[in-house]
Amino acid sequence: MKSRLFVFIVLCICTHTVIGQTENQKLKAEAYHQDQQFVNRYTNSWYWLFGSSNSKSNNDEPPTVNWELEDGGWYTGQGRNNEYSGFGIQYKPKDNAYIFSKWENTSPNGMTLSQSLDYSFLGTYENNEKNGFGITKWSNYKPFSNENYKNVIKFIGEYKDGVWHGYGIIYFRNGTYKSGIFINSILSKELPKIEVLEALGF
């Protein structure tokens, strides 16, 4: 009897926690929607693509280098003191991936294009994470799946610290999609696709 009571209490606590998290995310999404409703940050010739850091004038440009990497890959572009510093391309043989960015301390920064056979990303990086607008595509043969969504082949929208956060649209392999405001990679407020696209500057 005691064990059944204990299990019941645990289930109630877990259910209450999940409901609380869901409601909290809905409130955050609603607040985001109200705050950002009249803000259009990604228009004007897609300035977001290049990032503010890429627009700073610099009279001391790093030299062009061609480095072979220990894993068999390579980097070609601007660099100094064994660090990627400026525009350049890195090739990773393990993933057969190419990454083009304006690097800072060997980390992607500003506008970045990452491309492999099963994955591609075009958008902005900041602090070594996806931040700002981005488009991520996965192969139909290897779609993205996690505990919340299955068989995702494309995400168009905003990122914050590497996760979906803000206005966005996810497309599934079966041809359907969901659109709205994401909080920590979870769709917390559904909105019409046209409204999301307008908020993103399309």
Structure description:
The protein is built from 2 helices and 11 strands, in the order H-E-E-E-E-E-E-E-E-E-E-E-H. The chain has a domain at 1-39 and 127-202. The protein has helices at 2-36, 193-199, and strands at residues 64-68, 74-80, 83-92, 97-103, 110-115, 119-126, 129-138, 152-160, 163-172, 177-183, 186-190. The chain has 202 residues and is α+β, with helices and mostly antiparallel strands. The protein has an 11-stranded antiparallel beta sheet, with helices on one face. The model is unreliable at 5-11, 13-19 and 43-55 (pLDDT under 50). The termini are far apart.
Describe, in short, the structure shown:
The chain has two helices and eleven strands. With 202 residues, it is an alpha+beta fold. InterPro entries: MORN (IPR003409).
Query: Structural class, judged by helices and strands?
Result: alpha+beta
Distance between the termini: 60 Å
**Count of individual beta strands:** 11
In the predicted model, the low-confidence regions spanning at least 5 consecutive residues are: 5-11, 13-19, 43-55
Q: SSE order, as H and E?
A: HEEEEEEEEEEEH
Beta-strand residue percentage? 35-45%
Major sheet characteristics: 11 strands, antiparallel
Mean pLDDT across residues = 83
Count of DSSP-assigned helices: 2
* Helix proportion range: 10-25%
Radius of gyration: 21 Å
Shape category: globular
Widest sheet: strand order?
A: 1-2-3-4-5-6-7-8-9-10-11
